[in-house]
Design a protein that fits this description.
Elements lengths: L8 H28 L8
Protein name: Possible high light inducible protein
Keywords: Membrane, Transmembrane, Transmembrane helix
Length: 44
């Protein structure tokens, strides 16, 4: 049976932070689209 490697606490914290920033970015993109009607405001 293979030994399960333990994940360092720093990696878990980094992944959670990454996920939160991704969610904030997605909400910001949806908000920008809803308010301006453009996917990238000010571009084209």
């Amino acid at each position: 049976m293979a030994k399960i490697k333990s994940v360092e606490k720093e990696k878990i914290v980094a992944e959670k932070l990454n996920g939160r920033f991704a969610m904030i970015g997605f909400i910001a993109a949806v908000g920008a689209y809803l308010t301006t009607g453009q996917i990238i405001p000010g571009f084209v």
